[in-house]
Amino acid sequence: MFNYQLEVQVRSKFAFIGGKVFSLLVILPFLASCYDWPKDYQQILPRGRIAAITNPTFVTAKEAEISPDSWVLGVVINGESRAYSLNLLNAHEVVNDQIGDTPFAAVW
Question: Where are the domains positioned within the chain?
Answer without folding.
Answer: 7-37, 53-107
